[in-house]
Amino acid sequence: MSKKVIIFFAEYGVLFQGGLLIIISLQKHSWVEEMEVFVTGGVVLLLSLTVAKILKHVFRKYRPGLSSQFFKPRGFYAFPSGHATGLASVSSFITRIDLVLGFFAWVTALLVMYARVKAHVHDVYDMVGGVIVGLLVTYYVTPIATQYVLSF
Q1: Lowest-confidence pick of 40-44, 67-71, 109-113, 122-126
Q2: Any bridge partners for residue 62, and if so which?
Q3: Is residue 120 within 8 Å of residue 74, measured between CB atoms?
Q4: How far apart are CA 59 and CA 2, in angstroms?
């Protein structure tokens, strides 16, 4: 994989999943269903990233390289990967709604995770930890967030 492709996926691959959420919401039949997708997905994403940030300060595992050959990462701590947490969270949320789009979300997630390991911003353990956190938060929070959103 070329340096430019690695940088693109490592930094901007996450935007693809936002596009998938838009596609899912456009398939809905009312603005209430559209907002349910956006708000629930947003709550799940924010909570998973918050848990990842807290865990970074608990574990305090430094990045494999504080200065990557590709770009300068933000923050010193690597475990669990915030990108992997967010990607797994959104991918699993999308998969619950649409299996085909979920497949594309997971492919994108794996490309971003691979690019971040290749760029020496994370190692595989950071990614696996992030995926586990993202999946757990999504599994437990989505039903609660959906009920909360639907109550309005």
Answers
A1: 67-71
A2: 77
A3: no
A4: 32
Dist. CA 107–CA 15, nearest whole Å:
13
Predicted pLDDT of residue 148: 74
CB 102 within 8 A of CB 95: yes
> Quick one: CA dihedral 45, 102, 110, 72, positive or negative?
negative
pLDDT per residue as tens digits for the range 52-73? 989 988 888 877 765 555 555 5
Q: Which two tokens stand for residue 107?
A: 């492919």
Long-range CB contacts for residues 10-13, cutoff 8 Å, separation at least 24: 10/70, 10/71, 10/112, 10/115, 10/116, 10/118, 10/119, 10/121, 11/71, 13/108, 13/111, 13/112, 13/115
Question: Residue 46 and residue 89: Cα distance in Å, rounded?
Answer: 10
Whole-model pTM?
0.80
